[in-house]
Amino acid sequence: MIETDLKKSVTEYRKLFPVLKQDIAYLDNAATTQKPQSVLDAMRYYYENDNANPLRGVYDLSERATAAYENARKKTAAFINAAAPEEIIFVRNASEALNLLAYSWCEDNISEGDEIVVSVMEHHSDFLPWRYMAEKKNAKLVKLEPDETGAVTDEALDRCLSEKTKLLAITQVSNVLGRVNDIKHIAEKVHSAGALISVDGAQSVPHMKVDVQDLDCDFLSFSGHKMFGPMGIGVLYGKREHLERMRPFMYGGEMIQTVHWDRVTYAELPHRFEAGTVNVGGAVGLSAAIDFINQAGWGIIEAQEEILTKRAIAGIKDLNKIRIIGSQNEDDHKGIVTFCVEDVHPHDVADILGRAGVCIRAGHHCAQPLMDHLGVKSTCRVSFAFYNTEEEVDRFIEELSKVRGLLGYGL
Amino acid sequence: MDFKTFYNEVVTDHNMHPLHKHPLENPDIEMEGVNPSCGDELTIQLKAKDGIITDGSFIGDGCAISQASADIMIDMIIGKTLDEARHLADIFIRMIKSEATPEEIEELQEAGALADISHMPARVKCAVLGWHTLDEIIKGVGKTAD
């Protein structure tokens, strides 16, 4: 794509985001993205025109609510190329997806002495549920460690996988290191070991084409709000053969076929896992967000995010006493760059930048085991969406260059 | 808020050149405080005799605000009784919640330089980390004395 065309497209797409009219450089997209007008409108339209309790009523309004909800499921299934809409379970967010999976799947599939492999770079939401279930089942939690650049090597994988391995949990893109894991290859190895693979897609699904059948992953979790959708809607994808054999996670309304005092039959997929009144407005918003991504296309999204990432890395490398965490190679960062400023605590960096209108994240990024592994307490992170501009990156670098001086340190 | 009033000289000085950031030999009391939002840990160590704090220090890494706040605090409480120290901690914590009177803030002397943090919700936990830990310590001492 010609660069000026890309710039024009980005400018046009950026205009669709009401929040971005403010004088800020929003560079915390790995935490949550902003929402385009079309997503806000779709949710508003649903509540103004089609709202009823779905899946229950036999009147027209409820049928429209049901259609809105189930169409969102179909769209989500197509988006990640799931084999069927029933393989899409709507949840609140990736955290809930991973909790559902760990609680429900481990209950019947993990016994004493079994092993669950979890990478050390996981977000707490892809670590704590497995840790809890392993403890509960007297199973062993095996730590998969990436090398110093964040890469998962075959040697590391081979050390972790054994005949006792039942499942491996790993993120497709680390929310700290920004490195893309080769899930297709890892899945192959995990399956050869006779285990299943659960992929945290929270940082990948918004930024690259994710095809669950091509990856051959057994489960994939992601959040709507990190991909231009609303907060409160997320997805657990699972292969039908696995989901069908899993017990419910939450019990309640609309997840049953029949309930009597002495016998209960649970609903078919996917409703068995969606107890209670569901978040139709959220699903409608997610559906509109998928439309938005499809309309923009991965070509524009990935090209722009790559330009921004490279510019940020080059800018940081030009400054003294600032260290990029993980791989020093710009190609290894999928829109996420994490760094430390010598002598200055990340919270101070983020605070000082925040005062200058540059929004970045500081802290442990809900990945404390990774911080321990890297030997740092906390770090700063910039993360991009394709609506970000090169001017915003320059503004970030400009403000970052002042930080040490403002706190009394030499530049 | 103006940058200068927040990261003022008092804060940057105490952060860059803390007077009391070192381990204490044979402390009588030691307690760790954690800021869950960033994972920072701060350990306060005190020596006390006859209800008077004779020496104190803190160790641990943290942001400029938490480090400066703890350093100022230790500086203020050495030589004070446990009751006086707790009184200061009480004022400080209320100051950060915008609940202290100007007279009370005056009592805090240098620590009053952190008053503006009450307008910065994201940094409140950093500022009070040391003071909360101190408060916990003194509460604990009270309990054992009972």
Characterise the protein shown here.
The complex is a heterodimer of chains A (411) and B (146). Chain A has 411 residues and is an alpha/beta fold. Chain A has helices spanning 3-14, 37-50, 60-79, 94-109, 128-136, 154-160, 183-192, 212-215, 240-243, 280-318, 346-355, 368-374, 390-400, 403-406, and strands at 25-26, 88-91, 115-119, 140-144, 165-171, 196-200, 219-223, 234-238, 256-259, 264-266, 322-324, 336-341, 358-359, 361-363, 379-383. Chain A is built from 14 helices and 15 strands. In chain A, the strands form 4 sheets. In chain A, strands 2-8-7-6-5-3-4 form a 7-stranded mixed β-sheet, with helices on both faces. In chain A, strands 11-12-15-14 form a 4-stranded antiparallel β-sheet, covered by helices on one side. In chain A, strands 1-13 form a two-stranded parallel ribbon. Helices cover 49% and strands 17% of the residues of chain B. Chain B is built from 6 helices and 3 strands; from the N terminus they run H-H-E-E-E-H-H-H-H. Chain B has helices spanning 3-6, 9-16, 64-77, 82-96, 102-107, 121-145; strands spanning 29-35, 40-49, 52-59. Chain B has a 3-stranded antiparallel β-sheet with strand order 1-2-3, with helices on one face. In chain B, strand 1 (29-35) and strand 2 form a beta hairpin. In chain B, helix 4 packs antiparallel against helix 6. At the A-B interface, helix 11 of A face helix 2, helix 3 and helix 6 of B.
User: Spans of chain A of 5+ residues with little confidence (pLDDT < 50)?
Assistant: none
At the third CATH level, what is the topology name of chain B? Answer: Sufe protein. Chain: A
- The proportion of residues forming helix of chain A, as a percent range, comes to 40-55%
Tally of contiguous helical segments of chain A: 14
By CATH, the superfamily of the largest domain in chain A comes out as: Type I PLP-dependent aspartate aminotransferase-like (Major domain)
> How far is the N terminus from the C terminus of chain A?
39 Å
- Average residue pLDDT of chain B: 89
Elements of chain A, N to C (H/E): HEHHEHEHEHEHEHEEHEEHEEHEEHEHH
